[in-house]
Amino acid sequence: MKLETKMGGRWLDQGKLWRLCGEAGDLFYEALRVYQHSAASLRGQLAEAQQQQDWPELRRLLHRLKGSLPYLASEPLCQRLIAVTLAAQHEDDLRLDCHWPGLQLGLTALEQEIGQALSGQASTASSPH
Predict the structure, then answer these.
(1) How far is 122 from 82, CA to CA, in rounded Å?
(2) CA distance 108 to 7
(3) By CB atoms within 10 Å of each CB, which of 39, 55, 76, 129 scores lowest?
(4) Spatial distance between the Cα atoms of 101 and 93, rounded to a whole number of angstroms
């Protein structure tokens, strides 16, 4: 099984995750499912902490996201995460307001791309090749 690396404006770096999974398809898709399962909930918790300016909770949630995102996200999305994390560490409202929309947009797009990758796996598995 060979996967194309999704770069060039995409948020999911399939090639990076594929290599980390030792090019094992089952492990690759399981990693995507695990991330997908927790992503929407985590994104909602992040938005709530940001809106309430709960800096300790926001830092905790961003730290949790930093544990998984670098393994499957493209470099631009990881850079957005770093910018938001630095703003939260310094409790810098202005910087947070500047970088927050980009992170939220990137996370939403990442979830959509993961869903597409997983639906592609399902259609490949059911096709009579």
Answers:
(1) 33
(2) 17
(3) 129
(4) 13
CB atoms within 10 A of CB 118: 14
User: Do residues 81 and 62 touch, judged by C-beta distance below 8 A?
Assistant: yes
Cα angle, residue 27 at apex, residues 22 and 33 outer, rounded to 5°: 140
Q: What six digits make up the tokens of 13?
A: 């770096």
DSSP per residue, the chain: -------SS-SB-HHHHHHHTTT-HHHHHHHHHHHHHHHHHHHHHHHHHHHTT-HHHHHHHHHHHHTTGGGTB-HHHHHHHHHHHHHHHTT-HHHHHHHHHHHHHHHHHHHHHHHHHHHHHHHHHHS--
